[in-house]
Amino acid sequence: MGEVTSQLSVSLDGYVAAPGQSRQDPLGRGGLRLHEWLFASESWRGRHGLAGGERNVDAELVDEMTAGVGAYVMGRRMFGGGEGRWDLDWTGWWGDDPPWRVPVFVLTHHPRESLLMRGGTEFHIRYRVRR
């Protein structure tokens, strides 16, 4: 049997993003502050093709969280691109080479074909009709 884990950065008042999400502010206005610990780590930067970063307990946590992951699940807002019908030119916040390197299942109410990206990431759009 497989193992399922969940990982979120949550503020003390229960938010994972700030209001006002847009393509310019993927986590809402000021939402990046919640994840600064992650962005500074050597491990996160390396997964995104960036040099540098801190090698500390946060980097070790990122290594542990991503070791052996076979797939990710995210919502439409984490994938990005707004609400309603898809902008078919939009392929996510990460550009042509997302850091996931495994299948990613995007849960939404709007159908779209799967997207195969560089580096082995394939976004599978899974939708459910609202009732």
Beta-strand share of residues: 5-15%
What string gives the helices and strands in order?
Answer: HHHEHEEE
CA radius of gyration is 15 Å
Low-confidence stretches: none
Looking across the biggest beta sheet, what order are the strands in?
1-2-4-3
Distance between the termini: 33 Å
| Approximate helicity band | 10-25%
Q: Helix/strand-derived class?
A: alpha/beta
Q: How many runs of DSSP E, i.e. beta strands?
A: 4
Number of helices: 4
- Average pLDDT figure: 87
Structural write-up:
This protein is α/β, with parallel strands linked by helices. Helix content is 18%, strand content 14%. The chain has helices spanning 36-39, 42-47, 57-66, 76-79, and strands at 72-75, 103-108, 115-116, 122-127. It has a 4-stranded mixed sheet with strand order 1-2-4-3. Helix 4 (76-79) links the parallel strand 1 (72-75) and strand 2. It starts with 35 loop residues before the first helix and ends with a strand. The model has no long low-confidence stretch (mean pLDDT 87).
List keywords for this structure.
single chain; 131 residues; alpha/beta; four-stranded mixed sheet; 4 helices
